[in-house]
Amino acid sequence: MDISIFSVHWSSLSDFFAMGGYGFYVWGSFLATALLLFIEGVQAKRAWHDELRDLAQAYELDEGLAQLHKERS
Predict the structure, then answer these.
(1) CB of 20 within 8 A of CB of 14?
(2) Rounded alpha-carbon distances, angstroms, from residue 44 to 38, 39, 41, 50
(3) What are 18-73's pLDDT values in tens digits?
(4) Cβ–Cβ under 8 Å, residues 10 and 17
(5) Could you give the CA distance from residue 18 to residue 7 in angstroms, rounded to a whole number?
(6) Are 27 and 35 in contact (CB under 8 A)?
């Protein structure tokens, strides 16, 4: 089996980044994907903290209602 057909060779680093004339599309797509993954991670972290804050507020409200109910009984 000839493995040389599976390897990719570039004569220089600029040829690697040019990707045979498709470098703009290849690297642009890579950059867009990386950016969107980063934004998704930031939004997920923000949503997680918002949910924790909401749960803490609900817990405090529940504790306050329980205390109020105990005082009235």
Answers:
(1) no
(2) 10, 9, 5, 10
(3) 888 899 999 999 999 999 999 999 999 999 999 999 999 988 888 888 887 887 77
(4) no
(5) 17
(6) no
